[in-house]
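Q: I'm writing up a methods section and want to include an example of the input and output format. Could you take the sequence below and give the corresponding predicted structure tokens, formatted cleanly so I can copy it straight into the document?
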Amino acid sequence: MKVGLLFGSFNPVHIGHLIIANYMAQNTDLKQVWFVVSPQNPFKQSHTLLHEQDRLQMVRLAIDDNAALNATDIEFNMPRPSYTIDTLAYLQQRYPSYEFALIMGEDNLPTLPKWKNYEQLLANHEIYVYPRSRTAETVLKSHPKVKLVPAPNLDLSATFIRETVKAGRSIRYLVPESVENYIKLKKFWV
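A: Here is the clean output for your methods example:
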């Protein structure tokens, strides 16, 4: 089975994430898309993140009963910060009959050479890239393992959602209702 991995902090998960994941699962050769909730991204400050279990729970609430989508806490028990290449190696060992591919925004492609063992990643895994605005050009777009997928581009960020909550404004339609209710219940960012 071919599985696409959408890595992220998901602080919080929002409809942009869900649209990309569902589009990839329905319009490519990927059979499922797994949300890999990262406890600590090596390129982000961790003090701004909600607890990893809360972020995982919001992803689970968001995907609900969509059989093509899955939430995984695979990185929670791995060394931190999490490196994609290490997670891929662990997943490949745990699920030897699966083929894993990465899903990333076009804006992340130019920074791929900064990733740990990125050459190994490109040699062994396909990367499904969805369009993002304000993206620097890179020769990696023409790499044989890079698949450009014309998925819908929604300029929405978790930062925008957090700021909206802090300002006391509505996030209705920006996140699933179940995620909005969870944020209100837990009083995140207020």
